[in-house]
Each structure stands twice: as structure tokens, then as C-alpha cells.
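# nightly structure sweep
# worker-07 picked up a monomer target from the shared queue
# config: single-sequence mode, recycle default, output format = C-alpha cells
# input follows
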Amino acid sequence: MDLKLKDKVVVINAVTGGIGKAIAKAFAAEGAKLAVSSTSQAKLDALLPELGAAPDHVKTFICDVTKPEQIKAFIDGAAAAYGGIDSLIINAGYEGQHALIQDSNPEEFDTVYKINVFGPMYMMKYATPYLLKKGKGSIVIIASDGSFIGAPGMSAYVSSKHAVAGMAKCVSMELGPQGIHVNYVCPGAVDTPMMRRIEKKTFGDTKTPEEAEKIIASAYFDKRYCKPEEVAYATLYLASEVSAHIMSESIRLDAGLGSTSR
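# output follows
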């Protein structure tokens, strides 16, 4: 299937982590023109050879999503480099510290929300005028299965992902009539460094990664974690023109868990 992404300008943040790297590679393979960001230029430089993209098809930017001025500079720089924006992929996320509510602190909630809620808000705020100029396009937010379910000790993260889902639905209603389709991808546990941190916070040093996956993924029909590439493929589809009639929807990459919790 031709997803019609060749030479489309795709802006992706946080591309040097597990999911972000897989997403950037997937769009590069489709021939998209990439504007990608990280908080580390060294990590971006290390990623470039892995993308296999032509030099005129990838631009790198430093962007800390807790700093609105850096987000604006990233978006404006991407639009200036390519003459516009076709798709916005919002990937940056932070799981927060594992704490029961009586042990939680406002500072940690604030950090999680700055990255997971205000980061996407500013990304969409600054990118939307460029998308509107094109008269069509897409926004895909990497949310989480935590947009639908709870998890003990993760109230900051889960509540932030519920907020992201609500924001995506509102923005979809605003931009859908203007030709911009907005959706969000909701993976469960993904085999990434973030998952290693969650395992550590959950089990300490009592479980190997393999043992932790067996326990955490036991509720999934296929008894395994999602792969970063599977998140990337869902993102490609929702960003493409072939999915333009899909709006305000989520793809849950949770191996059937959602069917047991509705």
C-alpha cells in the first residue's frame, strides 16, 4: 500500500528514545522529509546514519518540551526549512516516579504534566497555523493505554495520558473541518528503556527483564510486550492520507486487554 508519505514534511519530537527512533526510521523509509528533535545533539548525530535518509530529507533540532520557546523554535525552524508542515507526530513522554497517592508530591505531578500534557499542547499550538495553511494534514499523539486504564502507583502518568486523550478529541473537533485529522496511538507496555525503568520501579532488583515481562504482559492475549516498530506502523497509518477519514480515534496496541476492561 502506498501511504503517500513520500516528500511529506513530518515533524517528530523525542526521536532518540525507543519509540521515537522507530517512528523516525519508519517515516524515513517512506521517503518523508523529517524534522526531528531531541534534547541531545550528540544523540541526534548518532541517529542520522541509522535513518538512511538523504541529507536534504532530515533536519535536526534541539528541543526540551518543558520549554515552550524551544518548541516554537523547533516548529518554526522545521516550517522554514521545508516551506511548511504536513504532519505532526508528538512522541515525548515521561512515566514519572512510582508512588502511591499518599506518598506522591506536587513537584513530580508538575514534571509529568509539563512533558505529557503541556508539551503536546504547545506542539499543537505552534504547528497548527502551518497545517492550516496547507489546508490538510495530520496530527498523531503517542499516548498510552494509560489513557483508558489505571495502574497503582502511576497516578501522575495515567492521569496525564487521560488528559492527552481528551485534548486530542477536542483538537480533532476543531481541526477536522479544516482538513486536518487528529488521532492518538495508545500502546500498552512497549519493549523500550522506559519499560525497563517501570520494571525497576515495580519490582526493584527481584526480577530479570524476562521475568518482569512475563508478569506484566500476562494479561495480554499474546503474552508479550509491544514492539516499538508496531507503534511506528500505527503512527504511519494515522499520519497518512489513506486514513484521512479517521478522526478523534485511538489505536490501542494492547493485545486485546481493552476488550476485557470495557
